[in-house]
Amino acid sequence: MLTAPDAPNLPFVQIGSDGGLLAAPVTHGAVEIAPGERFDVVVDFSAVPVGTEVTMRNGFGQGPAADVMRFHVVRAAPDDSRVPDRLADVEELVVPPGATRRTFRFTRGAVGDHRGWTINGTGFDPDRSLADIPLGEVEVWRFVTDVHHPVHVHLDPFQVLRRGAEGPRDLDAGWKDTVDIRPAEAVDVAVRFSDHAGRFVFHCHNLEHEDMAMMATIRTV
């Protein structure tokens, strides 16, 4: 969040996500961002007087870790730019009847002779594919978590369809390659791999989790 003394928090106007521009801008009072996620935002500092110090704060942080950076508004200057109402033509992935649906469970579990982090009960094995996916076909993948896992898919981006029984959040808009998944949550995404056949991976983007084998190989065919 962007805080200023004696003034309301400044909004973020999101114009892009992991995979490029959104179709239209989305305004957020705060942005919850997980490891690996990216948000392109525009901030209008003309809403506060010259001399104001605006602080970007981490609402989940404590002590010095709560203050991310500070902006000093030192002068007024003309600016005739604006964020357009329409940003880009974003293709919507349409899930066809009978589309393949896969579930991937991100949980704590045994990895060899020790405890680690697993996908569908197994640790990372580069030679074992959890799924063979035909190029050009739209599939629905469900990610299910035990604790907080941001899930990152390599090769092509995806689109968030729903969180549990609800639709996607505003922060899920656009093409994504990382989706933030809360404890005991299920998130459905539409995914399509288009160009390259071979072996690729997806994984939890918490560094200690992917380092402890929470990664899986897929194969596009």
Question: What does the model show?
Answer:
By secondary structure, the protein is mainly beta. It folds into 2 domains: 2-72, no CATH class; 101-220, Cupredoxins -  blue copper proteins (Immunoglobulin-like). Helices cover 2% and strands 46% of the residues. It is built from 1 helix and 17 strands. A hairpin with a 2-residue loop joins β1 and β2.
Layout of helices and strands:
Layout: E1 2-4, E2 7-10, E3 12-17, E4 20-28, E5 40-42, E6 53-57, E7 67-72, E8 101-111, E9 114-119, E10 129-133, E11 138-145, E12 149-153, E13 158-163, E14 178-181, E15 186-192, E16 198-204, H1 207-210, E17 215-220
Parallel strand pairs: 8-11, 10-17
Antiparallel strand pairs: 1-2, 1-6, 3-4, 3-5, 6-7, 8-9, 11-15, 12-14, 12-16, 13-15, 16-17
What is the ordering of alpha helices and beta strands? EEEEEEEEEEEEEEEEHE
- Structural domain tally: 2
From the alpha carbons, calculate the radius of gyration and give it in angstroms.
20 Å
Name given to the CATH homologous superfamily of the largest domain:
Cupredoxins -  blue copper proteins
Extended strand count: 17
How many strands, what sense, and barrel or not for the largest sheet?
Answer: 5 strands, mixed
Q: Percent of residues in beta strands?
A: over 45%
